[in-house]
Amino acid sequence: PGSLIVVSNRQPYRHEYESDGDGDDDERDRSITVDEPAGGLTAGLDPVVQEANGTWIAWGDGDADFAVADDDHCVEVPPDEGAYTLRRIDLSEEAVESYYYGFSNRVLWPLCHGFTDLINHRSNDFDWYRTVNERFADAVVEHAADDSIVWLQDYHFALAPRLIRQSVPASTTVAQFWHIPWPSPETFQQCPAAGHVLEGLLGNDLLGFHVDWYATEFLDCVEQYLPSASVDRREGTVRYDGHTTRVVATPMGVDADKYDRDARAVDRSQLTDIRTEYGIPDDTVLGLGVDRLDYAKGIPERFAALERFFERNPDWRGEFTFVQKSTPSRTDIPTYQRYGEHVRSEADRINCRFGTDDWQPIVYTEDYVEHEALCALYRYADVMVVSSLADGMNLVAQEYVAANVDGDGTLLLSDRAGAHERLGPHALTIDPTDADGTAAQLERALSMPIHERRQRMQTLRTRVFDHDLEAWMDTQFDWIRHVHGEQSTATDS
Ligand code: ADQ
Q1: What percent of the chain has pLDDT over 70?
Q2: What is the rounded CA–CA span in Å between residue 259 and residue 268?
Q3: Is any ligand 1 atom within 6 A of the Cβ of residue 208?
């Protein structure tokens, strides 16, 4: 196949332009710092796009002060190598408010995670979502040629695939990966413009989800809301408006070797530094939670289970510390502000209830944690708790396993996270809404014989290493080649 065009909301590189302060705003006087790709997917895709000399199209968030023409601008990245073109779509504040903070994160995010009471659909949001999807689609069409592969990421672009499909050569493959869950038809009923969203996605030649049950629910929704579509469940295809979309489940992995390597490079002194910084007594057993501060992650539910645990096990007071690392996210949305306040006040309340002069049950922090410190926490945490109420996959659970190089940690994992499909039987399964049950699993983890802990972690590690990010990427491109081949055959005949 030909050129590769990746589309995502977040850009892989951010350039910060700092003026030298002389006020003339001359570009040559500015110093430029570039943020490298952060986060699993971006860091994983970047080398692939580099190798393909492709194009990456993304919202130019944070580059607003760059003096360019009013239009989008293109830069060659990485900065000194120029392996591919990053095309930044410049969005107005109003567009961002409605497309990103609006339809994407006040409608599709709560909808797909089953929080229908948090859906907040404002009148212009869908129109802006469509306008932004059109902008991205137009940009893709400019770059697409015969045999190009267009690969869209996530729920910010439900409408673009159909727009792209209608305007590119038949030999161009349009694929998308949907990183969050897909809801049941009953929940999907609450989606404004539901038909447009489904039709948009059916412009893809390939549509990927993390796990089978999201793919199945997607097909259920298509059957229910687009009666003229024909769904072949055995093949996993939908035929709609003269076009076929293949729907697959391809669970994502993490760069396991990197976490393994980076965790081996840290030593106990880094953990000692972390303990000193947060006032964690030296000999306490460590629990860990690492999440974006998002209502889907079940952080208050986790705290409720910890409270139950300390009620039931007074002997563990002073002996077990839970470190919760949260990264504030989407803070322009009031629901997220309220959620943050609730999480912080619950941590305070529990700390007041059980804490002593030299020990706090929960060390809660929203500070930025460097990758090295994160690896130290992953390596030395005795128990990791992932208690999502809904979660497309959850990469944190897999990162913990990959970085747990001494092989003696225990993972408590929500049965509502996509990651449970892969890791379920070997982690300790929890129902995040059941505080008693979760507290009991924590007790079990803390009293588990070392040989059982090692055995479980060994199996988890095998799974995480066998299905790492590279394997996922290979699977994606195998499927893309497969549908590309099917298309060529259909075009030839
Ligand atoms: P997220 O909801 O952001 O991703 P997750 O899969 O856990 O959730 O990925 C978060 C990433 O950010 C991880 O790589 C993690 O290391 C990092 N991170 C999170 N909190 C951090 C912190 N406090 N400090 C440092 N790093 C932190 C969405 C979906 C998931 C899906 C992914 C990928 O919601 O279900 O697994 O996309 O498809």
Answers
A1: 91
A2: 16
A3: no
pLDDT computed for residue 33 by the predictor: 67
Q: Which residues contact 213 (CB under 8 A, 6 or more apart)?
A: none
| 102 vs 100: CA distance, rounded Å | 5
Taking every pair of Cα atoms in the chain, the longest distance, rounded to a whole number of angstroms, is 78
- The Cα 319–Cα 337 span in angstroms is 32
Return the structure tokens found at 235. 């093949």
CA 104 to chain CA centroid, Å, is 14
| SS3 sequence of 225-282 | HCCCCEEECCCCEEEECCEEEEEEECCCCCCHHHHHHHHHCCCHHHHHHHHHHHCCCC
242: exposed, middle or buried (Cβ count in 10 Å: 0-12, 13-18, 19+)? exposed
State the closest ligand 1 atom to the C-alpha of 325, by its place in the atom list counted from 1.
23
Mutate to test the pocket of ligand 1, among 8, 339, 377, 396 (most ligand atoms within 8 A of CB): 396
Structure tokens, 239? 């035929």
Q: Please, what sign has the CA dihedral across residues 57, 84, 473, 481?
A: positive
Name 31's bridge partners: 18
| Average confidence (pLDDT) over 258-279 | 95
Q: Residues 110-123: pLDDT tens digits?
A: 999 999 999 999 99
Going by their DSSP bridges, the two strands 237-240 and 14-18 should be labelled as unpaired
Nearest to 480 by CA among 148, 52, 202: 148
Q: Are 288 and 378 in contact (CB under 8 A)?
A: yes
Taking the C-alpha atoms of residue 101 and residue 99, their distance in angstroms, rounded to an integer, is: 6
Q: Which atom of ligand 1 is nearest to the CA of 292?
A: 20
Q: Using alpha carbons only, what angle is made at residue 457 by residues 452 and 463, rounded to the nearest 5 degrees?
A: 135
Instruction: Kindly report the number of other CB atoms within 10 A of residue 36's CB atom.
Output: 13
Helix (H) / strand (E) containing 308: helix 299-312
Nearest of 439, 444, 414 to residue 429 by alpha carbon: 414
